[in-house]
Amino acid sequence: MKQRILVWDMPTRIFHWMLALSFAGAFLTAESERWRDIHVLFGYTVLGLIAFRLVWGFVGTRYVRFAVLMRCSAYVIHYLVRLIRGHAWHPVGHNPAGAVAILLLLVLGIVSGVSGWAVYEEIGGDWVEELHEFVSNVMLVVVLVHIAGVLVVSYLQGENLIVAMITGRKRRAAYQAISRSYPLIAMLLLTALIGFWIWAWPDSRDERWLSEIGRGLGGVSALITTSGER
Prior knowledge:
Blueprint: E1 2-6, H1 10-28, H2 36-59, H3 66-73, H4 76-84, H5 96-120, H6 126-157, H7 161-167, E2 169-173, H8 183-200, H9 207-228
Antiparallel strand pairs: 1-2
Helix pairs in contact: 1-2, 1-8, 2-5, 2-8, 3-5, 4-5, 5-6, 8-9
């Protein structure tokens, strides 16, 4: 009997949406000299998130581990053929196409972030800048294809995968659930991100700005703790 079970732990969900936000922010500020410092902050955030995901891919819950993603991605062609024919299977975690997208985004994110750092530090010359722009554009294409795939599979599967990545839950058999959501690790990750932005923000030496940020941190921590207990 199917019921709503926990599939995605909270650190994975925080990583997913913060990476989406950071990449979107970096892309939208890429061509503006005025927003260059913010673009760089978004880029560093992407690298930091990916660093966390690389660790979490080895020690995280079962559906986010690289061993599972690698096994799953090997069936991507077979999965896509079955999907086109309307007979695709629906894994509890990522489907093969999603697994491939995640691995590609991690690799592209690293190359884009490192090359962007080199451009900012004026290392390597014009070819590094061209590499950074090319890889970032490829990453955007992968993101758009991933979003389209999520929408298509959500329709065919009859289950909103976007909502599942927010709530962490899917309709599956009870024995397929993960045992813990790890809200403390999620809180530490989010706190590290907020702390980095406070420290690196161009106006971070303005005491009034810091006090306004500080008042909001308590509410964020309470929200994460409450969500993790559901």
